[in-house]
Design brief:
Blueprint lengths: L5 E2 L1 H7 L14 H16 L10 H14 L3 H13 L7 E3 L1 H12 L7 E2 L2 E6 L2 E7 L4 H4 L7 E5 L2 E2 H10 L6 H12 L7 E7 L5 E7 L1 E2 L3 E3 L7 E3 L1 E8 L2 E8 L4 H14 L4 E5 L5 E2 L3 H6 L7 E8 L3 E6 L18 E5 L6 H11 L4 E4 L9 E5 L5 E5 L1 E5 L14 E2 L4 H6 L3 H16 L14
Parallel strand pairs: 14-15, 15-19, 19-20, 20-24
Antiparallel strand pairs: 1-16, 2-22, 3-10, 4-5, 6-7, 6-8, 8-9, 11-12, 13-14, 17-18, 17-23, 21-22
Helix pairs in contact: 1-8, 2-3, 2-4, 3-4, 7-8
């Protein structure tokens, strides 16, 4: 089954992860058959018949001889990835069969059983790879790692060298996203495997620790030809300056998040405001956007349009008038803030950008990744999987977010000092705005769609 998603960075991590990719010889004819299949799929399904300005027919003539000459699967992947990169668009990824097969093995072990997690996240800030989050009780915390520490190396991979490679990469994504993908891949592995990581701690001393990867704390999700993903979620109440606000965070738009978001909104329905934290949320099932947005509108409201080569699908926020138990409720109409950063991608951008252009939310943080193309997977003759876009998403004012991203109403940056001190300037800015709305009685609006590009 072909499942339409707007999910990017997790798939990129699988595509360039630490799975062994041996120089496997291909059966005679498989290289050309695989190249032709990948080229034809894009030719027949790409939403833009100009292929983003690329002469797709000429590109086939140029690269097909290289595919014919490919000696092994690695050589073939280089050619196909070059073909996809020429489009200069997101959601065109070749996923190695090893990544999919590794997920198949995990499925045999209760889905995510052998996919490990280091218990930390990173961001590129001021040319430093910094620890941005440490999970309570996770592997990184047990070794003493703290937010704000600088990552110097992972095993034999020096971060300065990685930064240089990322800068020289022809990829269209931001440098922050490129670094995140690569560092996250180096921190991945099977449960129990050990990562030797050197840090610069908060006192300026070098610390070398061995982090034994633990089971991923998220809920494993597997469908179609995708690798296994893990849905993580948490919600909490925050009191600030006389107001009480509910904060909801989740890392992707996958099925396990639906009931969790529903319950959290229901719990926070009577509070002074709600913050939806989409930092690090890499996307997922685009259709979920409509249901979640419905918690925050009293009337059916258009959010945008997905345009494929042959069809249009209108995205609406459909008011949620009952809770999961069937009780009658009113959608939340108080101040609503969304937090974003450079790793916010795909379905998260549809949600934030769609709601921003209606004036319903105020967005705080950094400009999002600008990778907003709905996509599907197809299995290629080589066993690799082609993840390819077949649609574009535009907001209600007709603007495409691809390559642009969601521009926050209020830009907020994060520093190493903030991380070391345990401060969250993104959340603080959102809380300040919600407090102001409470004092002034103002309606909870951000910038309208017509103002976004001014």
């Amino acid at each position: 089954m072909r499942i339409l998603t707007t999910l990017l960075l997790g798939i990129l991590g699988a595509a360039c992860g630490t799975h062994k990719q041996p120089a496997t010889q291909l059966e005679p004819g498989t290289s050309v058959e695989t190249f032709d299949a990948a080229w034809r799929i894009v030719y027949e399904t790409h939403f833009d018949t100009t292929f983003n300005g690329v002469d797709w027919l000429a590109l086939k003539d140029e690269l097909r001889p290289e595919a014919e000459a490919a000696q092994d699967v690695h050589d073939l992947r280089v050619v196909i990835r070059e073909m996809l990169d020429r489009l200069g668009q997101s959601h065109f990824v070749l996923i190695p069969r090893e990544a999919v097969e590794s997920s198949d093995s995990a499925e045999d072990q209760d889905l995510g059983g052998d996919i490990g997690d280091a218990g930390l996240d990173i961001r590129l800030i001021d040319e430093m790879v910094l620890v941005s989050r440490v999970d309570s009780g996770g592997p990184a915390e047990t070794t003493g790692v703290e937010p704000g520490w600088v990552v110097l190396s992972i095993d034999d991979h020096d971060m300065d060298e990685l930064l240089e490679v990322a800068r020289d990469s022809p990829e269209e994504r931001s440098l922050e996203a490129r670094v995140w993908v690569r560092v996250t891949a180096h921190l991945s592995g099977s449960t129990g495997s050990v990562k030797r990581v050197q840090f610069l701690d908060g006192e300026g001393a070098k610390q070398t620790v061995e982090i034994a990867l633990g089971p991923n704390p998220g809920s494993p999700v597997r469908f179609g030809n995708f690798p296994t993903f893990f849905n993580r979620f948490h919600s909490r109440r925050v009191a600030s300056d006389g107001v009480e606000v509910g904060v909801i965070w989740f890392n992707n738009w996958m099925v396990p998040a639906i009931a969790r978001v529903d319950r959290a909104v229901n719990e926070f329905r009577e509070l002074d405001g709600i913050v939806v934290d989409l930092r690090g949320n890499t996307g997922g099932l685009g259709a979920m956007v409509m249901g979640v947005a419905g918690h925050f509108y009293e009337v059916r409201t258009p959010l945008g349009t997905m345009q494929t080569r042959r069809n249009e699908l209108e995205f609406f926020a459909n008011p949620r008038l009952s809770d999961r138990a069937g009780n009658r409720v009113r959608p939340f109409v108080g101040p609503l803030a969304i937090l974003t950063d450079e790793i916010t991608a795909s379905a998260s951008e549809m949600f934030a950008g769609g709601m921003q252009t209606t004036g319903r939310v105020r967005v705080f943080g950094e400009t999002t990744m600008g990778a907003v193309l709905p996509a599907v997977t197809d299995l290629l003759p080589s066993g690799d999987v082609l993840y390819h876009a077949l649609g574009d998403f535009t907001t209600v004012n007709g603007e495409s977010l691809e390559g642009v991203g969601v521009i926050p109403d209020e830009r907020v940056t994060l520093s190493r000092d903030d991380l070391l001190a345990g401060r969250d300037p993104f959340l603080r800015a959102a809380l300040r705005w919600i407090e102001e709305q409470g004092r002034s009685g103002s309606s909870p609006v951000g910038r309208t769609g017509n103002e976004r590009r001014m």
